[in-house]
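anyone seen this seq b4? input:
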Amino acid sequence: LVCLVAFALLCYLMIGASMAISRNLGDMGQAAARLAEGDLRHQLVPRSNDELKDVANRLNEMLKSFSAVLR
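predicted toks r here
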């Protein structure tokens, strides 16, 4: 019974982590699509406090740089 509860808890945590990662990557994909369409005003709002937040912040810096170059 303890093993079953531990397994269920592990599955729950893994599904939650997977959904959080997918959501953040989806946001970054949408930002890249908007950049490809020429929208340099869009800024990502990081939803996590991990490496994906760092990537989102770097993408925001890149968008600002592109915008400055094109002005």
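The first helix runs from residue 2 to 36. The chain has a mean pLDDT of 89. kinda curious what u guys think
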